[in-house]
Amino acid sequence: MQVSILGAGGVAYSYAAFLASRGHEPTVWSPSGKRACELRSGMKLTASNALDGSFAVGVATSEAQATEADVLILAVPAYGYRAVLDRILPILRDGQTLIISAHLSFAALYLSRRLSERGIDCPIVVWNTTASTGRQTGPANVSVSLLRAKVEMAVIPDTAGAKALALCQELFGDRFALVSDMIGVDLGNLNPAVHYGIAMFNLTRMELAEDWPQQAHITPAVARFLEDLDRERLALANAFGVQARSIHQAYAVPGKIEIAPLAEMMRNIVATRKGVNGPKSLDTRYVTEDVPYGLLTTIRLAEMTGVEVPLHRAGVTVFSSLYGRDFTAENTILPEIAPAFASVDKLRAALRNGWSAV
């Protein structure tokens, strides 16, 4: 199957390799035009670690080429969502399926709103995390650190759920679980909370460009902080009546890493698998993406239900001070979909049926 990947970073490269290994025909598109030059010249994409091999990958050089496929996967940080979507929206066509990988800030509603303005009907699939993780180790090389065993997904409209599930399984294998409520999918994305803790308490390492394995630096004190953050998130999920995996469930690997206090789980992870290095710059999506698009969205949901999330609020305030910028003003998605947050019922209706419900 032909699949266009909107993005050309580490995750996008891991998707391209993953799809090609399963016999599909992936094409990557660098919105900036600065990446994938070597692939465009004919070099194969070489993957290592959890996935090994060299694969032929197509490269799109324009919005038109990037939207030729019937399936499009948005694989850019959340701060790039709107810019990329605005470029492709004028040329999308009925029936294309759009997948938002590691969905944040209910960007699917923004896409649904813009599609409805054009009178275009496209299923919108969202995942609570990435199907694989990867870091570019060279211009045509990607280290795939993980092929996830489980990814939760939801679809607008929800009536397209079964067909979308079959499509995702055809592309990436039997690793998807269809969830009826997209609120549960978004609250199931643990990146904002985990990255908050990792970045906050290792900020000087980032600023000084040190090499540091991030799991090893989730010390018992940081682990306690992450567990407290998790309790806020799970209380919010409970207020909405949705299921969301705990941070312990997210890190557990049956038979290898069993559920236990998070500090103990981290010790076992460090002892049994190769670690991933943390960011080496303050310019990291752990903050610039996850604070305005993750923490702020959680706070907005908390305001709707009256759930107190003081640690999430503190993160936005403290990171704004550390970075000398107002992260509360940097989310370009939430203001565009504000009418959907008039009530819990309206938000749920929009996430089931699309923007027409708003």
TrEMBL record:
Residues 4-99 form the Ketopantoate reductase N-terminal domain. Coiled coil: none annotated. It catalyses: (R)-pantoate + NADP(+) = 2-dehydropantoate + NADPH + H(+). InterPro entries: 6-PGluconate_DH-like_C_sf, 6PGD_dom2, KPR_N, NAD(P)-bd_dom_sf, Opine/Lysopine_DH, Opine_DH. Pathway: Cofactor biosynthesis; (R)-pantothenate biosynthesis; (R)-pantoate from 3-methyl-2-oxobutanoate: step 2/2. SUPFAM superfamilies: 6-phosphogluconate dehydrogenase C-terminal domain-like (SSF48179), NAD(P)-binding Rossmann-fold domains (SSF51735). It comes from the Bacteria. Keywords: Pantothenate biosynthesis. Pfam families: ApbA, Octopine_DH. The keyword Lipid metabolism does not apply. Residues 180-322 form the Opine dehydrogenase domain. This is 2-dehydropantoate 2-reductase. It comes from Paracoccus onchidii.
